[in-house]
Amino acid sequence: RFLEEVKFECHFFNGTERVRLLERRVHNQEESVRYDSDVGEYRAVTELGRPDAEYWNSQKDLLERRRAAVDTYCRHNYGVGESFTVQRR
């Protein structure tokens, strides 16, 4: 048996002035590859993740979509959730 997880994290600084997207690929509780919008490409965390990072970095359309996700996913969802989180303080 094995467990594969994909986690997306949006980190917001000063509202949405600066946004960082992290995509983490986890295999059996060990992160193997990660996309960091501050870097702009996939990076292997372990040797297991190296082939995936190399392949995904060769897919220019995938990288463009991931880079755009800072706006289409993170900033969009900040606006959706803002009324629930920011106003409750």
From TrEMBL:
InterPro entries, sorted: MHC/Immunoglobulin, MHC_I/II-like_Ag-recog, MHC_II_a/b_N, MHC_II_b_N
Keyword NAD found: no
Source organism, top-level taxon: Eukaryota
BP term (GO), one: adaptive immune response
Keywords: Adaptive immunity, Disulfide bond, Glycoprotein, Immunity, Membrane, MHC II, Signal, Transmembrane, Transmembrane helix
Cellular compartments annotated: Membrane
Membrane topology designation: Single-pass type I membrane protein
Residue ranges of domain MHC class II beta chain N-terminal in the record: 8-82
Cellular component terms per the entry's GO annotation: MHC class II protein complex
PANTHER family named in the record: HLA CLASS II HISTOCOMPATIBILITY ANTIGEN, DRB1 BETA CHAIN, MHC CLASS II-RELATED
Name of the protein this chain belongs to: MHC class II antigen
Organismal lineage: Eukaryota, Metazoa, Chordata, Craniata, Vertebrata
Gene (UniProt): HLA-DRB1
